[in-house]
Design a protein that fits this description.
Blueprint (H helix, E strand, L loop, with lengths): L4 E16 L2 E16 L3 E5 L6 H8 L6 E6 L5 E3 L3 H4 L6 H12 L4 H14 L16 H13 L5 E5 L7 H18 L2 E6 L2 H7 L2 E6 L2 E7 H6 L4 H8 L2 H7 L2
Parallel strand pairs: 3-7, 3-8, 5-6, 6-7
Antiparallel strand pairs: 1-2, 1-4, 8-9
């Protein structure tokens, strides 16, 4: 049976205005981006800083204006940000942070919300006592687990992850990537995984899109793109990564 379509992005562009004295110019951030995303898929979005990756994510979430068409076939897509420290309210205990999305969504009793909180705490590899902890009492890896829990507790089908492991050391990165893979299976999630690290994308994703200066230069299944890159920029990115050099035979 064909996979369910959950997101369709068609010819999406984004610009912003720059003013220099009396002159005003339009700067293109995204140019004619198109792709489709399916149930259970993990798409890696790679490219250097300033390539438009985060801007595309904000367009998908409706946070900024754009031209073109973005069609959601699921409800309530969520986002996990790079900096877990700034993403979490420092004055709130973890339990309240996680219960807040359920409270806003409505339709649950307080008891049901707390049951859901303890369930998601276990699912992301934290302990029940962490419910009473403030973010400042947690490690960076634990805070990122809380951010992931907050994103998926309302049971979305699409989660956008913007550099979610780049601020973590290599050991913790591996643990978080394993967690994301487990959660994808457990909750039938789809991820748009934004990263500048092609090694990380290779480990987690099954499809990759390569961006530069607001354009998608190349996209396709990870194995296909990594082993037989068509675009020169993609080849250059691959050559900067040891595991990719070996796998792509470059």
């Amino acid at each position: 049976m064909d996979k369910k379509l959950i997101l369709k992005v068609e010819d999406v562009s984004n610009t912003y205005s720059e003013t220099h004295g009396f002159n005003k110019t339009e700067k293109k951030v995204l140019e004619h981006v198109s792709f489709e995303m399916y149930e259970g898929q993990i798409i890696g979005l790679v490219g250097e800083s300033g390539s438009g990756k985060s801007t595309l994510a904000k367009c998908i979430l409706g946070m900024i204006d754009y031209s073109g068409t973005i069609t959601h076939y699921t409800k309530h897509p969520q986002m996990v940000f790079q900096n877990s420290g700034s993403a979490l309210n420092p004055s709130m205990p973890v339990g309240r942070i996680l219960a807040e999305p359920l409270f806003l969504k409505g339709g649950m009793t307080k008891k049901e919300r707390m049951e859901a909180v303890y369930e998601i705490i276990e699912a992301v590899g934290l302990k029940p006592e962490h419910v009473k902890s403030n973010p400042s009492q947690l490690s960076g890896g634990q805070r990122q687990r809380v951010c992931i829990a907050a994103a998926i507790i309302s049971k979305p089908q699409l989660v956008i992850l913007d550099e979610p492991v780049s601020a973590l050391d290599v050991t913790i990165q591996a643990q978080i990537l394993e967690l994301l893979a487990d959660l994808r299976k457990r909750y039938n999630l789809s991820y748009l995984f934004i990263s500048h690290d092609l090694n990380v994308v290779y480990q987690l994703c099954d499809y990759v899109m390569v961006m530069r200066k607001g354009k998608v230069l190349e996209q396709g299944p990870v194995e296909e793109v990594y082993e037989n890159p068509k675009n020169e920029y993609t080849k250059a990115l691959l050559q900067a990564s040891d595991i990719l050099i070996e796998s792509a035979g470059i």
